[in-house]
Here is the input.
Amino acid sequence: MAMARATAEGTGRLFFEFYRLLNAARPKEGEDRPFFWLFENVVAMGVSDKRDISRFLECNPVMIDAIEVSAAHRARYFWGNLPGMNRPLCPSGTDKLHLQDCLEHGRVAKFGKVRTITTRSNSIKQGKDQHFPVIMNGKEDILWCTEMERIFGFPVHYTDVSNMGRGARQKLLGRSWSVPVIRHLFAPLKDYFACE
Here is the structure.
């Protein structure tokens, strides 16, 4: 079993910790309260790992790519019991769908959308020729942190804390969710947790 191997090697530890917490948090028999959960992982995961996670969680994942609601690809699997997880992903009026919408003044996008931004610095480069995605003062340039934050749907300077450098901020963003995707997934919960 691939998950057993992953656990022995340390990479599956987080899933099993999630699974333990999921079972500990489930309502006990007779408790009448809503209980929703969500687990996410990359689409590039191994087929056997996906199968094993689906078996443990007793459901198949939904694949959602942030490209439909942002300026970047970010295909992810989501397992869960949130209402409407399979409904179509639709951009809101505030979503920044094109790279140019995410750039600072005076910078020009070379591409309409960018590939998945990961924790690796070279994930910013685009295509087989590895071009930087922005032109500034006639030269190719990297994405700035504030631009990556906009691509992910975060407020500008959201990751500008504790004197973190550019690389650390990209690593933080590379591990994060796309805000518009999570907003889409969580939107139906307002019907269960409405405030007066």
In short: The CA atoms of residues 12 and 135 lie 40 Å apart. The chain has two domains: 2-91, 99-174. Residues 4-8 have pLDDT under 50 and may be disordered. The longest strand covers residues 75-80.
